[in-house]
Amino acid sequence: MYELFGAHKQIILTSFTNVGSSQIQQIRKALRAYNSTLVISKNTLIKKVVQMRANGIDEEEFKHLEQQFGGKIPELAVLAPLLKEKVALIFSDASVHELRLKIEANKVPTEARVGVKSPIDFTCPAGPTGLDPSQINFFHALNISTKIVKGQIEITKDFKVCTKGKNVKASEAALLKKLNIKPFEYGMKIAEVYDDGQILPEAILNLDPANLLARFEQGVRNITALSLGAGYPIEATIPIIIGNAFRNIAAISLETGYKVKEVDAAASSAPAKTEAPKTEAKKEEAKPKKEEKVAPPPPPKEEE
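Below the sequence we write its predicted structure tokens.
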């Protein structure tokens, strides 16, 4: 673990509450393709190693670690307050957005247990339950409106059973178990990311790289427009200012006839316009038409 803290600048902190050992093994296998290491240990032990890495080693029996894997990394001290409850460390230099798909994809449906905090709001849908009328007490305990249809209990309208952040009660857990509903999905989830001395919270990780780049580009365009409007030059507007100035000089040169070699060079490098050859039909139209000779009218007959 002492070696890993010095070998990677990125450390992903994940929570694995209610995650089974089989899920963890599958995530380990998926991370091997990215040259990443998943470490799960006691928080007191991890804090001890972080302290040794951040402040240096005092114990003589561990002095050889500094010679073998490097000395102090003071920036790691920011990890100590985050090591609480069930936390696992993933040492990796791969993109966290790419790893997140592998880490959080492995989820297993789980039934509601008494006393467990509900991770979501769950609503029991209206409709037939498949339970016989003798078990209607479970619904009465939760004040769920029901009716008996064709010898079975039917819920007449949707009812919210579990509330996010609140503990699951015994009656709620019993009802969901009777209905054979597994409302929760548990899996490993990224909490924070240590990146070379900085802690990136989950809110930043939720930003899509493409959307982040689009926002950055929009910000650059806004700053560029503000700079041009205010006449305050910055690195992004200097090429535009020079281009505008050159066009003004070119316009004055062409209007006054004053020769500017850069304008002449730009004009000479421009492709010359070529006229399209006239078609035979157009040539025929261009030729003057011959005047047709009209015969004079006959002389009038003399009256008798």
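The chain has a mean pLDDT of 83.
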